[in-house]
Design goal:
The chain has 68 residues and is mostly helical. It has two domains: 35 residues; 33 residues. It has three helices and no strands. It is flat. The mean pLDDT is 64.
């Protein structure tokens, strides 16, 4: 019984790792792009990421901002 539970948790763990792979993330992005127009996609997804990056670089934690 104990062994079975452990195996299941291991399997869940592997599935979580696999779901974090770049490929699946790319697929998710493609799905988002299908539902939104490209302009909306930029506004909703890319812009917040760019904003976060700008704040991150301004704080100086990642070295000089080379992406300005």
């Amino acid at each position: 019984m104990q062994r079975n539970i452990k195996a299941k948790s291991k399997r869940e763990h592997m599935r979580q790792i696999n779901s974090r792979s770049p490929h699946s993330r790319g697929q998710a992005m493609a799905g988002i792009k299908m539902f939104l127009t490209s302009q909306e996609f930029v506004m909703k997804v890319r812009a917040p990421i760019r904003l976060a990056k700008a704040q991150y670089y301004r704080a100086g934690r990642a070295g000089p901002d080379t992406d300005s």
